[in-house]
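Troubleshooting log. The previous structure file for this entry was overwritten by mistake, so regenerating from the original sequence record. Sequence copied from the archived sheet and checked twice against the printout by T.R.
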Amino acid sequence: MATDPLKVKCITCMFYDARPVNQIPGSSDTRGLCRRYAPMVYTGSTTRNPGFLWPSVKETDSCGEWELRPPEGAVPVRPVQVAPQERIAKRP
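Regenerated output below.
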């Protein structure tokens, strides 16, 4: 089944967290967090303490990691990957 390229945007992605972040005053862009991967470590220019953050993205952005957000209230089901037999450690 082909996906409509106009719908492959962060706003429809299961990894998009729509909490408003880094809104630019006067801008109509709505931003949220991409939670596809673990947060990144950063060191601020004004502090010596490292922090963690997820990338801030516009709801109209898109990438190659997009997955359709399940309907509201649905429990997402992700396929389980099984290691090939040759990668499983053999015990004596």
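The longest strand covers residues 31-34. Archived copy saved in two places this time.
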